[in-house]
Amino acid sequence: MKLVIGIGNPGPEYDKTRHNVGFTVLDRVAQRLAPGSTARARFKGATIDTDVDGEKVVLLKPATYVNLTGEAVGEAIRFYKLDTNDLLVIVDDSALPCGRLRFRPSGGDGGHNGLRNISQHMGNDEWCRLRIGIDDPGDIPLKNYVLGRFRPDQSDAVEGALERAAEATECWIRRGLEAAMNTYNGDQ
Hints:
alpha/beta, 7 strands
């Protein structure tokens, strides 16, 4: 079984913000793998269950807001008794250029409060993540930047990245981390 988490904030006021690229990618993955499926409320979020090549896949959008994402992830991991190798977290990354993708098998939170909270609830940081570059905020305070929408000059890069990230997530589900890293890391 695989569990895929998209990090983001619930509510229409956060739609299309930089912090919600994880939600956007998860929506695209759901359209690819479970078209027409209806999400149900579970694990402090919304889930869609599907089957990919005979393996159960659960897509989870936490409703806990970014900073408390670990609450939803922890509940789902404990319920399914999953190994951390079966978890993928899709997240925005201000340290990467806009549109760049990077899979990592583990690692620190890079200052991202959602990743930090997941590590706290999991007791480690040994789980896969797919980081999507949103550019460095420059002089804009990070909180304001991540809660803002993409600038027109970022639109093409982010749109392409969102589609490639959905493809990359499907690759991770079907072929594993190494294949996904070899195919998509550094892709732009």
